[in-house]
Amino acid sequence: MARILLVEDDLWSRRLVFDLLVLRGHDVLCAAGVSDGRAQLDTVKFDAVLLDINIPGGGGELLLREIREYNAVMPVIAFTASTMTGDRERFLAEGFTGHISKPIDVKSFGETVESYLLPPT
Amino acid sequence: MTPVGHHPLVGQLLRSIGASDVEVPSLATWRELLRRMSQMYYETDLDRVTRERSVESSSRDMQRLYQELKQRTESERAEQEAVMRATLESAVEGILVSDNARRVIAVNRRFAELAQLPDSELDNRDQRTLVATALQFVKRSDDVLPRVDALHESDATLHDELELRDGKVIDWFSAPVRTPDGVKVGRVSFFRDVTAERQAQQQLEMAREAAELASQAKSLFLANMSHELRTPLTAVIGLADLLLLERDPLVDRQRDQLQGIAASGRHLLTLVNDVLDLAKIEAGKQELQLESIPIHDAIEDGMAAIVPLAKLRGVMLEPATLVAVPNVRADRVRLRQILYNLISNAVKFTDRGGKVRIRARRDDDRVLIAVVDTGIGIAPADVTRLYRSFEQLQLPSGDRPGGTGLGLALTKRLVEMHGGTIDVESELGVGTTFTVRIPVA
Fold it and tell me: Which residues of B touch chain A, with CB atoms under 8 Å apart?
């Protein structure tokens, strides 16, 4: 079981991912934007962050850079509807641990997220 | 000298009147002699006058002839000059001709007009000062005079444009003037007002740019729209799928309805994806990640996703026989999309019991991939509509086939982006063959 922060501004996408991860036994906290997510990160210790890119308050990339300033290893997964060729490479180069594109495959989503988690120490 | 001391001519004269030239002549002889001499003088006088008259008259003739000739030549020359001048003045171009010493040989009013000089300047016979005066109306004229100087030292021709301070654009062509045997005797420059042409060109260019910008804006709008549409679709499809996965039992009717939501959501998603792809290609934002790809892998990739549909429709899928075919140079994702579109189309338009075969072979510097079906075929009239967006062929049942009506439009553009070609051959009731050629890696 992992504690995962989900930053996603679309209410029903958030509900879907929340349900999927909770069904698999994870502890999920949600944020709708950058400042909301920053506040959660300041108060709770997370095992992973699922981060939409196109979110209010500066975008997912801004939040990622802030996280990377104090934590280089925590899995941060870009979660976007963008499919431009080369996006995936760009996200990895920016410091994301992985990339999951929307729409998600409900059947495999949980496993994909879990594959990015660090082994328990 | 005769014995009496006569001049020989006098002696001769005396002899001619029968007198002796040795004796002293008688008075009668003197008289006769005097008369003869007088007569001779008269005759000589007469002769001289005649000669003088004759000389006088012939010289007058000569003079008249000379005057006539002179007049004729002058009028001919004047006529020629008038023709030359009229020719110069009727030219659309401003014309300036100078000799090797840079004296102005010919210049027309149009030149003065274009150079915005008073006509009085046309009398300036010094080409260099004339040009210098004209240049005061030319923008960025600093280097022009040195260029003109250099030009006069050379055999070069020049074609350039000059911009005047009032915004006019002047086309300038300069060439050496040569005699028929090739000796350079001077230089001629033609000047033409091309302001209107340049303005028209500029307006055309601006209109083209505006149209391009509008088209790009449209494509960008579509791309953004599609992106925005994908977000709620994620939730629609995902939540329906999630509900279908729930352990709580659903009645069959509810399960059907949920599947309807999920399937329609996926259909909408495909449509949005295709619109997004087309928009990206048209906005020039679609980039290919070209790599060397084994064609059999790509075919297998494209086919895998269609196997369930083929099974459902009772259509047999026959993959390409594994003969050695060189790799293609393609974008993995896009090549898969091309093959998927062609194979799924073939399956959709082939009746139960039919067959869809895929063949691949080398064709010169390309790899040919053919998707051959035994389907309903395409009427010749419909072939031209094949690659248009949102044009879908009808199934004999009247149902719309699945898909978006964008598949072939997108496929054709993707193939062309790879430097490839797509062709179709079809016969109603017999089947259709789509042939794609992609460059060898």
Answer: 227, 230-239, 241-242, 245, 269, 273, 276, 280, 285-289, 331, 333
